[in-house]
Write the structure tokens for this entry.
Amino acid sequence: MTDWLSDRNGLLHAEDVPLSAIAARFGTPAYVYSRSAIATAFEEFARAAAGRRALVCYALKANSNLAIIDLLARAGAGFDIVSGGELKRVLAAGGDPAKVVFSGVGKSEAEIRLALEHSVRCFNVESESELRRLSAIASATGKRANVSLRVNPDVDAGTHPYISTGLRQNKFGIAHDAALAVYREAAKLPGIAVVGIDCHIGSQITELAPFVAAMDKVIELAGALSREGIALEHLDLGGGLGIRYDDEQPPSRAAMLAAVFERIDSSPVVRDLEVMFEFGRSIVGNAGLLLTRVEYLKANSDKRFAIVDAAMNDLMRPALYEAYHRIVPVARNPGAASRYDVVGPVCESGDWLGRDRDLAINEGDLLAILSAGAYGMAMSSNYNTRPRPAEVMVEGSRVHLIRDRETVESLYALERRLPA
Ligand code: LLP
């Protein structure tokens, strides 16, 4: 489990706060995060990169709550964004745009303008068309955009097909074989300053080998560029380090960075370049849980269901990827366990949060759905007109409300009835 959670006299605590107290004060469902768990995860990366020219960015898409951005900005993180909206969040939370890298395959003109206005550190460009658009907009405003090309190294990250991005058949990046030609073009465009190579091969990667294989491709390309006289300032190796949801054994943050730096140090072409990363899940994934209450227990023939007040709209990962999240009762129960599918109230058979879980529970009990800090709230929706959960961050014995529970009225506030 995660070390910010502990069983104290049969009651699950988040840092020093009983989860039952959070439910009583803020209601359920609620996302609960640990300030120290987020800070510690980031510090592990920072420590592993200490003394080097390196920038550890946080990939905002994993969880873009302002409090989390704020906390990481104060810790010195850079930010990986994929939209103009995410840039505005970084600015609203006090982050430094000079530490922002802008990723994504479909940057709009407006988003490019906004990012140029704020002089983001680098655009990770994914196609020739995007490169030309960026150059045109930048030169028209008298600027030059710092650019890395995102290369697709055709490496199998060994992860779920929906979150694998570094294969030839994925929409991401520029094919490794084509990259050199695109770099030549980039070097000639007036609004572009070539500064780096970018690469991200997927998410929830639990082995080092794919990262190292991708690195090797990146280093090879850097060598080819240097022979052409195209000088680089940095390598951006993306994110993707996996976490433990169940019994996965991902490499530690330190081991992951050590493997990368070892490779870099042994290659004269890239040895002196700055190294950037874009980690999302590894920083926040295990630092959050979704707190929910059992509404009903029921059995259909021999199948038992625990119907809880959280649903696929709050945590989409099980429905979308068949992802596994541990589910534990908040209060230890003396009774015998039964096997349940833990499901939500949404009208879809895909609305499940956990299957075949042995739980000793009663109606009204609280459950904690673990490892929900990344891609939980960030991917939530209002399906079935369900207001999104409150979000709180625990800090020792204090609890900060970092997002109010939505109201139903706010969900249709932008809608209009027809004229009479
Ligand atoms: N950089 C780029 C360009 C990315 O596309 C991503 C994630 C990251 C960094 C951060 O990856 P991380 O360190 O979090 O693995 N919704 C899925 C995950 C989608 C990841 C998309 N890209 C899930 O819930 O598993």
Remarks:
- The first strand starts at residue 5 and ends at 8.
